Design the sequence.
């Protein structure tokens, strides 16, 4: 029998009261790793009740003391990085080096949140009127929750948790039911980092668990990362229940390749962006738009790169790309490739129907390139979330920017060029919250907000850095007058 995972509530591991559970599957081998309970509302209620109790003293704990468990956690995450990375690779499929890179980004968010004694400072103005001073202070909200996706089980919880708790809130995580094992390992480290009981809670589950979070009056704010359909739903239900919400959605990221680009660098970086993490990154390049003369040279090099990428179980040496997350995902991706071809695209590299020796049951889709994809074709508009790169061609940079801006998502747009004027124009005009210039994955570092636009984000304050501080605090204005001082004659 696979191990049944537990919730972490009030500083202790507890069995969920769930009657239903799902198998957690290693996508490379299709073997069952564990069983995840689909926790009902009563588990969420218990987590929120204990978090509300913990909040009473946690918010009174000086901020310099609140960051101490985070300093300890940084050391623990570094010590356990390899073990966490293997867990990510086993449940999510990416390669070990990708998993280690993911943990590095997680650690950086812990480091940034350790600056909370400075980050949380307010503002004031002495003598805003005669003898009257005005202050703006930031106070925590209470209990906050994050609902996270499958593709970064080690990193995405850290876009929220360190900032939330350092700012004085109590935090509840509902990880993706497809990759819940890494969270168990993270919470074991949270326990060692000495957060007081109730400050960091974990409730496993699926839709019903999410709905219980969205409807619970004790939860003040919800952070979400996942597909656009779910993001839109969560944003509206959370808002209808009077909660703050920041909801990051899906993406379809275009990359423009100018004729003056360093073609060797552009293709290498772009291939890593499109096929790294098997294309299951919200910042994966999924459409490449070559401009003018860039076309033949780019196609030749990107095809060679895609065809030679080493695919397999991500923990084995030399593997450059792992499987996609599930059998359904593989079927969906292969269906979209077929649809692309029947809609007029040419398949330059076909990643369907390939097997890996010793991992014949794994959910592998090899790198795939579709050429001559029409701007209104599904392959140009739908988030495929697999290792599929669609090629489009434009005659000028104007045309390329129009193609970039013709889509509904706005997570990322990149350009490869050696011309500063092209680069500036692109940066200035494209509708995307994260822009890369000669960069294939324009992922903001932890000291900057993760700025999705359009259908890639619902809300106003993004994850990470100062936006997180604002999201997880409410401002209080104090207007202050002291009669004896006020009436003093000068
Ligand atoms: P998903 O939307 O299926 O699931 C995300 C979370 O929502 C999970 O915890 C899941 O349990 C919950 N959920 C799913 N359907 C729900 C429903 N109907 N009601 C309530 N809760 C529900 O996303 P996923 O497949 O796990 O992740 C991949 C998606 O996440 C991609 O679209 C990707 O682009 C996106 N993503 C976006 C970013 C970003 O920064 N914008 C980052 C990473 C991933």
Sequence:
């Amino acid at each position: 029998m696979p191990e049944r995972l537990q919730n972490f509530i009030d500083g202790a591991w507890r069995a969920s009261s769930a009657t239903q559970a799902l198998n957690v599957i290693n996508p490379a081998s299709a073997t069952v790793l564990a069983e995840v309970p689909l926790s009902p509302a009563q588990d969420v209620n218990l987590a929120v009740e204990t978090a509300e109790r913990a909040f009473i003293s946690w918010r009174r704990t000086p901020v310099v003391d609140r960051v101490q468990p985070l300093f300890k956690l940084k050391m623990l995450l570094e010590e356990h990085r390899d073990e966490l990375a293997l867990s990510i690779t086993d449940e999510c499929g990416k390669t070990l080096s990708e998993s280690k890179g993911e943990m590095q980004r997680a650690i950086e968010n812990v480091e940034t949140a350790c600056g909370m004694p400075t980050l949380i400072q307010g503002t004031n103005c002495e003598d805003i009127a005669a003898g009257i001073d005005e202050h703006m202070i930031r106070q925590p909200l209470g209990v906050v929750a994050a609902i996270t996706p499958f593709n970064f089980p080690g990193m995405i919880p850290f876009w929220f948790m360190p900032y939330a708790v350092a700012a004085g809130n109590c935090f509840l995580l509902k990880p993706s039911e497809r990759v819940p094992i890494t969270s168990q390992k993270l919470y074991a480290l949270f326990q060692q980092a000495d957060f007081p009981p109730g400050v960091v809670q974990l409730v496993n589950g699926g839709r019903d668990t999410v709905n219980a979070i969205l409807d619970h009056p004790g939860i003040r704010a919800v952070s979400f990362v996942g597909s656009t359909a779910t993001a839109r739903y969560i944003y509206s239900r959370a808002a209808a229940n009077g909660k703050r919400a920041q909801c990051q959605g899906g993406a379809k990221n275009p990359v423009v390749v100018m004729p003056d680009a360093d073609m060797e660098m552009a293709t290498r970086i772009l291939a890593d962006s499109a096929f790294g993490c098997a294309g299951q990154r919200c910042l994966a390049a999924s459409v490449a738009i070559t401009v003018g003369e860039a076309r033949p040279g780019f196609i030749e090099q990107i095809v060679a790169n895609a065809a030679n990428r080493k695919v397999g179980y991500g923990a084995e040496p030399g593997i450059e790309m792992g499987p996609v997350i599930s059998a359904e995902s593989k079927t969906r991706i292969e269906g979209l490739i077929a649809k692309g071809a029947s809609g007029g695209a040419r398949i330059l590299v076909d990643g369907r129907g390939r097997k890996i020796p010793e991992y014949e049951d794994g959910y592998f889709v090899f790198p795939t390139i579709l050429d001559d994809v029409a701007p209104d074709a599904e392959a140009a508009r739908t988030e495929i979330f697999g290792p599929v790169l669609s090629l489009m061609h434009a005659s000028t940079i104007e045309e390329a920017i129009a193609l970039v801006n013709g889509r509904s998502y706005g997570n990322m747009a990149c350009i490869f060029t050696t011309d500063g004027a092209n680069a500036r124009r692109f940066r200035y005009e494209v509708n995307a919250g994260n822009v890369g210039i000669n960069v294939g994955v324009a992922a903001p570092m932890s000291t900057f907000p993760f700025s999705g636009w359009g259908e890639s984000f619902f809300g106003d304050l993004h994850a990470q850095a100062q936006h997180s501080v604002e999201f997880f605090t409410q401002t209080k204005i104090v207007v202050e007058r002291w009669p004896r001082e006020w009436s003093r004659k000068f």
User: Anything to note?
Assistant: The pocket of nicotinamide-adenine-dinucleotide is lined by residues 147-152, 174, 176-177, 206-207, 210, 225-227, 230, 233, 248-251, 282, 383, 385, 411, 450, 452, 456 (CB under 6 Å). The mean pLDDT is 98. The longest strand covers residues 132-140. Residues 41-58 form the longest helix (18 residues).
